[in-house]
Amino acid sequence: MYLAIVCSFLLGFADSCFNTQTYSIVGSLYPDDSAPAFALFKFMQSLAAAIAFFYSTALDLSWQLLILVVVGTIGTWLFCLVEWDVHSELKRKKQDEINAINN
Q1: Which of 81, 59, 82, 79 is nearest to 71 (CA)?
Q2: Average pLDDT of the segment spanning 26-41
Q3: Contact between residue 37 and residue 29 where contact means Cβ atoms under 8 Å apart
Q4: Nearest to 45 by CA among 22, 12, 14
Q5: Which residue in 25, 5, 7 sits closest to 15, CA to CA?
Q6: pLDDT at position 13
Q7: What are phi and psi of 60, to 5 degrees?
Q8: Over the stretch 65-78, which tens digit does the pLDDT of each residue have?
Q9: SS3 of 32, please?
Q10: How far is CA 60 from CA 11, 51, 72, 87, in A?
């Protein structure tokens, strides 16, 4: 019983951290026109949930977990790639601003 509660807490905490980071990245990538970007993000999130609800009645639990692990791993790698790209872009812009001030 306690293991289920701890796992539920950890899943909820991880989901909140993921959403916070994702919203932060989307907001920083599209600062001038962020509403369409957030709408597209929520649309894709809802589409993925609908697909998962659809195949949950057709597949066994082991296949559902395999899909979850594969998609989660790919998503984590792509999230890290985008986070690293955004960080290096912001670092480059900051360095360009410093160079423009010094020249």
Answers
A1: 79
A2: 87
A3: yes
A4: 22
A5: 7
A6: 94
A7: -70, 165
A8: 999 899 989 988 99
A9: coil
A10: 22, 15, 18, 40
